[in-house]
Design goal:
6 helices; binds adenosine-5'-triphosphate; alpha/beta; globular; ABC transporter ATP-binding protein; Rossmann fold; transport
Length: 236
């Protein structure tokens, strides 16, 4: 396998049998994600984005096909290995931040890194996401954008191979959303982290190094963007 490839999906399908009807949430998906790339997966509701993210993140298995992370076939993993895969290799960022309300920002990040082998320095990462002076505050004392920064710090501090973000700006107002996208781009560059964002928000695609469009479970377009724009220039 090309050593620049971080993840590879080969002919991945996910079928659901609903009585007489078979729903293909993913259909013959072939995909390469290269190391250090900033990838945006775009598609309308129901196009299969979450299905793909769940499969790449080791939260779900395809009905057909194979998925490789750093050359290892994760679809052959048992539950124990998949748990270790999610813990070590993937940093998740979701629309809702899923923070522990009774822990401070710093403790939220610390908790996630405790079980990881190559965790980064927590204070440095909190500084990098702009929360250096807020780390002893509790989530309820912080804005939505700040809470998403904690969630990003928590994902990054694990030092995963891939940051998987599901509608990371979905719960934020426009300006805060742009700041979060700017932060994700900075993390991508500063830590050379591969980032995949899935979203239905078309303008976000303009900041991608690679843009993947999905429709009805299929990839209908997969193209390199030669001139990704600075997130601060995105409008929606
Ligand atoms: N557990 C399930 N059982 C049956 N059908 C499912 C299941 N999960 C997903 N699907 C179907 O698979 C298709 C793709 O769903 P998916 O959630 O991946 O889309 P999506 O692009 O993430 O949508 P959204 O942006 O609304 O979250 C949809 O038609 C959905 O109804």
């Amino acid at each position: 396998m090309d050593s620049n490839i971080l993840m590879k999906a080969e002919n991945v399908s996910k079928l659901y049998q609903m009585g007489e009807v078979t729903v293909a949430a993913a259909k013959n998906v072939d995909l390469n994600i290269y190391k250090g790339e900033f990838v945006v997966v775009l598609g309308p509701s129901g196009s299969g984005k979450s299905t793909l993210l769940n499969i790449l993140g080791g939260m779900d298995l395809p009905t057909d096909g194979k998925v490789f992370m750093e050359g290892e076939d994760i679809t052959s993993y048992n539950d124990r290995k998949l748990t270790a895969y999610r813990r070590e290799k993937i940093g998740f960022v979701f629309q809702f931040y899923n923070l522990m309300a009774n822990l401070t920002a710093r403790e939220n990040v610390e908790l996630a890194t405790e079980i990881c082998k190559d965790a980064l320095n927590i204070d440095e990462v909190l500084e990098a996401v702009g929360l250096g002076d807020r780390k002893d505050h509790f989530p309820a004392q912080m804005s939505g954008g700040e809470q998403q920064r904690i969630a990003i710090a928590r994902a990054v501090a694990k030092n995963p191979a891939l940051l998987l973000c599901d509608e990371p700006t979905g719960a934020l107002d426009f300006e805060t959303g742009i700041k979060i996208l700017t932060l994700l781009k900075e993390i991508n560059k500063k830590y050379n982290k591969t980032v995949v964002i899935i979203t239905h928000n078309v303008p976000i695609g303009e900041m991608a190094d690679r843009l993947i469009k999905m429709r009805s479970g299929e990839i209908i377009e997969d193209k390199i963007n030669d001139s990704p724009i600075n997130p601060e220039r995105i409008e929606w």
